[in-house]
Model the fold of this input.
Amino acid sequence: MKKKEVLNNIGFFLIVAALLVILVFQKNIKVVVFAASFGLLIYGLMSIPKNNVSGIITCVFSISLAVSGVLYFTKIFNLLKAFTFMISCTVFFMMVLSAIFSYKRKKLICSKYTLLVDAEVVDLVVNPNTEAKYYQPQYKYTVDGEDYYVLYPSFINKRVPNIGDKTKLRVDENDKDAVYFERAVRDKVFDAIMIVFFMLVALAIMIGQFL
Done:
């Protein structure tokens, strides 16, 4: 049996054990909380190879639940404060992870699409299947003296460029037809502001529970 299958079997056994503990000790809230956080942690760890985001979020929530449980059962927090701390802690680390994933994704994209080229809008394809006007811009770019054409990945009806507008595209050096469209600067800035905002709010709420 492969190592991965052995670990999955062990993980499945531990999750079932956690569920059984919850069922047997369902009237003991302390046991239920820590058994649930343990089961969620194991489930999250097992899910990470399949889906990084959901698996890590589950792990973060399980740890937040356990820490909040400790603060509640040691009477540092009342129930409301413990619940508020758990939610705030989860949001804080989700924002931290969002920033990390965004940075790693950017590095991965830059390592794959190494060429940064100038591109020009040469056509606006109209979507014939919608009543409202949706357009799919077509771009022309040149690599090593050869012209290439690429369509934007989807139809859009906001911030539609004009024919002749220029932009930058990232191109795979090994496959000149493979293109990555950079997100608009305003979208990047908005996302960054929202991540920092929710991170600071969550952190302030967490600290506030101790005051």
